[in-house]
Write a structure and sequence with these properties.
- By secondary structure, the chain is mainly beta.
- The protein has one domain (11-62).
- Helix content is 6%, strand content 52%.
- It contains 1 helix and 5 strands, in the order E-E-E-H-E-E.
- The protein has a 3-stranded antiparallel sheet. A two-stranded antiparallel sheet has the order 4-5.
- The longest helix is centred in the last third of the chain and has 4 residues, at 42-45.
- It is globular and about 35 Å long.
- 0% of the residues are buried.
- The model has no long low-confidence stretch (mean pLDDT 76).
Length: 63
């Protein structure tokens, strides 16, 4: 996986189904080797209105 700054890191990619607010979406999930982060593909995130509140560690998904 490549970052905005040009750096890369090895990841595993999985094709999964995600259920959000009663709707299922096929998407790609990436897991890194160094930590415990899991990244959903933009194919799901671009369909939703999502607010990321970093300092509060909250994610708000609007229906």
């Amino acid at each position: 996986m490549g970052g905005v700054g040009g750096s890369t890191t090895p990841t595993l990619a999985f094709l999964v189904w995600v259920e959000l607010d009663g709707n299922e979406y096929p998407c790609r999930l990436q897991a890194d080797f160094a930590g415990d982060e899991r990244l959903l593909g933009r194919d799901v995130l671009n369909r939703l209105e999502i607010l990321f509140r970093g300092p509060a560690r909250e994610v708000v998904v609007n229906p």
